[in-house]
Amino acid sequence: MFSDIVGYTAIMGRDEREGLRAVSEHRARLRAMLPRFNGRLIGEVGDGTLSSFHSAVDAVNCARELQASLVEHPDLRLRIGIHVGDVVFTDNTVLGDGVNVASRIHELAPPGGCCISERVYEEIRNKPEFQVKDLGEKKLKNVPRSIHVYALTAVAAPGQHPSPLGLAARVGKSIANHRTLAVVGALLIVAIVAGIATWRRLLPGSAVQLVTAPPGVRSIAVLPLANLSGDPAQEYFADGMTDELITDLAKISGLRVISRTSVMKFKGEHREQLPEIAKTLNVDTIVEGSVLRVGDKVRITAQLIDGSSDKHLWAESYERDTRDVLTLQDEVSSTIARQIDVALTPNEQARFAKPRPVNPAAHEAYLKGRYYLNEIGEGRTNRGIEQFQLAIKLDPNFALAYAGLADAYLNGEDFDFLATEVMPKAKAAAEKALQLDDTLAEAHSSLGGVKFWYDFDWAGGERELRRAIALDPSYALAHGFYGDLLTYQGRYDEAVAELMRAIELDPLSLQFVTDARYPLSLQGKYNEAREQSRKALELDPNYFWAQATLGFTDLDAGKNQEAVRELEKAMAEEPTPYILGWLGYAYAVAGERAKARATIVELDKMSSHQFVSPFSTAIVYVGLGDKEHALDGLEKAYEARSQFMVLLKVAHAFDSLRSDPRFIALLKKVGLDK
Q: pTM value?
């Protein structure tokens, strides 16, 4: 949206201070209105601006509101022209048909009026709220073809009396499905409020300079790339491209990159304005854009935006064969790093410069696998495993597919599958991935998880997780795993620091917010621990695990009746064997022994149709004070390599067993005797 003041040169000639005041007033009004109409400021030149919108309706509605707001300010009048057309962002400049045509249409509008091109008219013609006058075909300077132009009739803004300076009637809610950039078949709506002589002088060739990046950019979030295929079945591909761009940027040591879990909260058309998103994620800049796959070609359009001001800093389109899609991601990432002036280490420069060809079919299966793992619902782990196995079959040397397979097995352990069935497979997959590519942080992280959760190799697990963090400092999951490892070893201060770092990288992750509760609770910081659980419930009031952790903290604090209530709520939300086991423990220590024994019966029933870890039954016996059955269950849990055995050293529930020789032997077996 070009904004320029009618007669600005004359105003400046009469009174320079009045001219500057007019520019300031105009821009202030525009900035205040843009968020309401899905608009964004792209650049500022002289007394004018350029903004983009989601749709033609948004552009017309914003123009109408802007003009209506100036009815009582006859000294500040604007001309508006709206056109839908292709634009190109390159070298901090906006140019192309969209800018060129729009920069001519405004001349046909009177002060306070608005003209639109035929392409805009086609978008609004079936909306009776809009009235137009046909001005016919017009030959515009430097535009090779004639443009059919319409003038919007004067109708007041909502809530105001009709005025000859108004632009359109109230508009129903009409928001485009995607924020898009042209060149990939998307539309940019450019509304011009212009005194064209100024733009001819300042913008030769109908190009607009973008805002330069502010100094000191050290944090960034990549919002979900829009799927421009028009096929919902291709969402996995757009999400996968988003994931890989995040992963690439996260490997830059001088940059804090927000993880996938948090940015995916902003997927879809109904999301907050970018400054609000930037504030929520605590980042300096935001990347958004789109992806389009047609045949064996992939095109990504990305734009870099200043988080606080919502100004465009850079934008570009990239196109490659599907075989070179990873190289394409590297190019986008390295360009973004240059735009925000983040120094790349020699190793980072070499990695981005190295071509990374990939088997397109294997890569597609890998993206589907990641997509399924990130879904919510039954069967997602199995669907992910199937796709990763397909990717490996199509390309046995595809390291990322092995890393994904390791994550899938690790994800289902002790919940979907018996640990002894899947953890050796997870370990083998992670080791194979690292054999093919030792720089994969994901594989080092997965291997680290296997080592301490399954092998009880704490030194090996710590080594792998520290290696993962060194390779990818913004990999929140590695920080989270490392924080868990430190917690189970009793290194609480270190654990809190790592888990808070994970939250900083993934602030909307329910997992990390609740995980940070445990070391706080073990230190006796019960109010702080409960606050972490409440933060998770604020993010998702139906998150059963956060409800359960309130009960766990109450148990640590000796508030057994309160723990029962919280755990009953969690069971009502999601009846899992693990929570049922702890509810049975809570019943027992609260004196409700009959209810505690009933949970043992219920766990036995559950085991007939789903996996139930022996740990869950054992913890009920611990609460009942039945040491023999409790230790029998814990020994079975060890034989099954239950991940919950990592709790033996730190969980207060086991305090009554610590002097028992069988328990001491178990501590030694899981490597937590020191």
A: 0.71
